[in-house]
Design a protein that fits this description.
Helix content is 56%, strand content 27%. By secondary structure, it is of the alpha+beta class. The chain folds into 2 domains: 1-53; 57-186, no CATH class. The strands form 2 sheets. Strands 1, 4, 5 and 6 form a 4-stranded antiparallel β-sheet that branches. Helix 2 packs antiparallel against helix 3 (152-161).
Length: 187
């Protein structure tokens, strides 16, 4: 009976040890799973926070542009080769010259700024700049026709020269309006 009691005690202690080991192993596994869930939850919270709290930025666009300039027809008086006339009037036809210019857009406040929004703004400003400047020069050319009927032959030549070429585009991004304004005036 003492032997059975000893065997029974050893058997009980063995079972307790096995159960205890397995529960420790499960506790470690559960602890590891809990840590992984906490990390995932933290990442999701950070992503949600970033979506809701993307930084507000202040941006402007700087273009270096080769811009056409309309030079209207001019009339000059020169000494005449005809002895009956003292002077004669000659016409210098209208022309287009080009000059390099730096254009800077207005400063724009962009909430939830990301690089895509910056480039979208840059493309829109470039298109608007070209549209406004080209229509202004074309209006000058049309006005020239109304003043000088001989200019009609010159129009096609002038129209081919009316090209705005963007030489350089820069997207300037700042954390405050003050920084953007200082940079815009300095550059």
């Amino acid at each position: 009976m003492k032997l059975n009691l000893k065997i029974y005690c050893v058997l009980c202690l063995t079972i307790i040890a096995l159960v205890s080991c397995q529960s420790e192993k499960k506790k470690r596994e559960l602890g590891e799973k809990e840590r992984q869930l906490q990390l995932r939850e933290q990442k999701l919270l950070e992503q949600e926070y970033n979506k809701q709290h993307k930084p507000t930025k202040y941006i402007y666009i700087a273009f270096t542009v080769k811009k056409p300039i309309f030079n209207p027809a001019r009339y000059i008086t020169v000494p005449s080769s005809n002895p009956l006339n003292l002077t004669e009037t000659r016409t210098i036809p209208a022309s287009i010259t080009h000059t390099n210019t730096i254009f800077k857009s207005e400063i724009l406040r962009v909430s939830e700024y990301d690089e895509d929004k910056g480039y979208e703004y840059m493309d829109n400003i470039e298109s608007e700049f070209k549209r406004v400047n080209l229509s202004g020069i074309r209006s000058n050319i049309s006005a020239e026709i109304m003043i000088d009927n001989n200019a009609v032959d010159n129009i096609q030549r002038l129209e081919k020269q009316v090209i705005i070429k963007i030489l350089k585009r820069e997207l300037k991004v700042f954390d405050s309006y003050r920084e953007a304004s200082i940079s815009r005036k300095k550059d």
